[in-house]
């Protein structure tokens, strides 16, 4: 599914998968060789992530709960989290995170407070 930043009028990603269930969320992007440009992974209900067993850097976008119109507010974001070393502890107000290829947030111009829609 595509993800759009309605505040900036840009696309964050063209094809975002949804991690379902405990194992899908637990595994996340671990074990993958790369994440193609325009792709991403939505981890609903997630408030923290780690980069253990990751082979490539990522950007991540922590979003708040969906509002009545379905949009979500950007609560926090991290750019270029390094493989094996990056950790993002608990993000207050987050109700999920989108993991993206490194550079995706800069290309879309996304900032904390922006409105995101799936």
CATH architecture: Sandwich
List the secondary-structure elements in sequence, H or E: EEEHEEEEEEHE
Q: Quote the average pLDDT.
A: 91
Total beta strand runs: 10
Please list the strands of the largest sheet in the order they lie side by side: 2-1-10-7-6-9-4-3
Distance between the termini: 7 Å
Portion of residues in beta strands equals 35-45%
CATH class: Mainly Beta
Count of discrete domains = 1
* Total helical segments: 2
Spell out the CATH superfamily. Answer: Protein of unknown function DUF192
Main beta sheet: 8 strands, mixed
**Structural class given helices, strands, pairing?**
mainly beta
Structure description:
The protein has one domain: Jelly Rolls, CATH 2.60.120. Helix content is about 10%, strand content about 40%. It has helices at about 20-25, 105-110, and strands at about 5, 10-15, 15-20, 40-45, 50, 60-65, 70-80, 85-90, 95-100, 115. The strands form 2 sheets. The protein has an 8-stranded mixed sheet. A hairpin with an 8-residue loop joins β6 and β7 (about 70-80). The protein is globular. About 35% of the residues are buried.
Label this structure with key terms:
about 120 residues, single chain, mainly beta, two-stranded antiparallel ribbon, Jelly Rolls
Summarize the structure.
With 118 residues, the protein is mainly beta.
Which helices and strands appear, and what pairs or packs with what?
Blueprint: E1 3-5, E2 10-13, E3 15-18, H1 21-27, E4 39-44, E5 49-50, E6 58-63, E7 72-81, E8 87-88, E9 96-101, H2 104-108, E10 115-117
Parallel strand pairs: 3-4
Antiparallel strand pairs: 1-2, 1-10, 4-9, 5-8, 6-7, 6-9, 7-10
């Amino acid at each position: 599914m595509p993800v759009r930043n309605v505040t900036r009028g840009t696309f964050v990603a063209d094809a975002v998968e949804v991690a379902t269930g405990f194992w899908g969320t637990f595994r996340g992007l671990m074990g993958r060789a790369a994440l193609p440009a325009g792709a991403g992974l939505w981890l609903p209900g997630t408030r923290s992530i780690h980069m253990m067993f990751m082979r490539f850097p990522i950007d991540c976008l922590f979003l708040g709960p969906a509002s009545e119109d379905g949009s979500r507010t950007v609560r926090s974001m991290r750019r270029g989290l390094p493989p094996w070393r990056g950790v993002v502890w608990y993000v207050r107000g987050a109700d999920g995170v989108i993991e993206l290829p490194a550079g995706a947030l800069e290309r879309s111009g996304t900032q904390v407070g922006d409105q995101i829609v799936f």
